[in-house]
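Quick one before lunch.
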Amino acid sequence: MTPPQTDIIKAADIIRAGGLVAMPTETVYGLAADATNDLAVARIYEAKGRPSFNPLIVHVSCQQMAEREAVFSRLARQLALSFWPGPLTMVLPRRPDASVSLLVSAGLDTLAIRMPAHALAHDLIRAAERPLAAPSANLSGTVSPTTAQHVADSLGGKVDMILDGGQTEIGLESTILKIDGERAMLLRPGGLSVEEIERLAGVKIERASASGPIEAPGMLASHYAPQARLLLNAGAPGDRDFYLDFGDSGFSRRPNTLNLSRSGSVREAAANLFAYLRAADAECRAKALKAISVAPIPDRGLGEAINDRLARAAAPKPKP
Ligand code: TXA
Ligand code: MG
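Model of the magnesium ion complex:
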């Protein structure tokens, strides 16, 4: 059942080249790609057919790798010591110098991280020598896969390789906790029970019902929105705008312009989206520009998720 070491080496080569590998974990199969490669991460969203960018979990093989990407409070480190490797994901502040793509966290300032307890996942991350972004390896809106066959049925033609590790042990996704300093909040119940965490770690976990609404995983209201005004479907920028262009439109020499994809690839535009939004926002502040205007993005493929994200970012901000 267990693939030979040569398969791990082949899978790691695919990851390094920006490809997609389905890997078993102790919870469910994950659709893995190099978390530090924007285009590879865009491919994940494309393969899942998600109409929006729901942020992804970053999988690491050791604590050192995790701490290069996220800021660990004392509580976070204690939980990692107690439950990693294992079915616990922690949402932590993203380090400003994190190596993982902004698309992984869909522009959020936090990062969901876990260390899977599965030999194949562990070996793959080590062999690839980088953290792996991996959502469950199913099409959006369908149940999570617990065998390699499920993955093949759902995503067969869209992954470069499936590592077969037999049936997953837990069969339920990881438990997600958001860690805010020394507070822990439940974002998603999963393979590790809240009672067990509380008992073994001696901490109280806050639940949505107890302290009012807690931001649900992937809730887009909490996503990064630029401070500058955002104008969508702008065929041409205003004089005092920063322009996020798309395709071959004749604005290539204009100052205060970045092109999401000169060749008109929605995958490339997705890969650049969050980094360019941040850069545009910073330029608007630095140069007192009026707004960020964005060229029309076609609604095909990842364009739908890009447009969803842009529409939310352009919507009036809720009062805190
Ligand atoms: O067991 C698991 O967790 C599996 C295996 C493959 O590791 N992965 C998994 O990933 O279930 P996915 O993408 O299906 O679910 C990840 C959840 C999503 O609900 C997402 O919104 C949430 O994690 N999430 C990711 N990053 C987040 C963040 N920075 N803040 C809040 N929620 C986040
Ligand atoms: Mg899922």
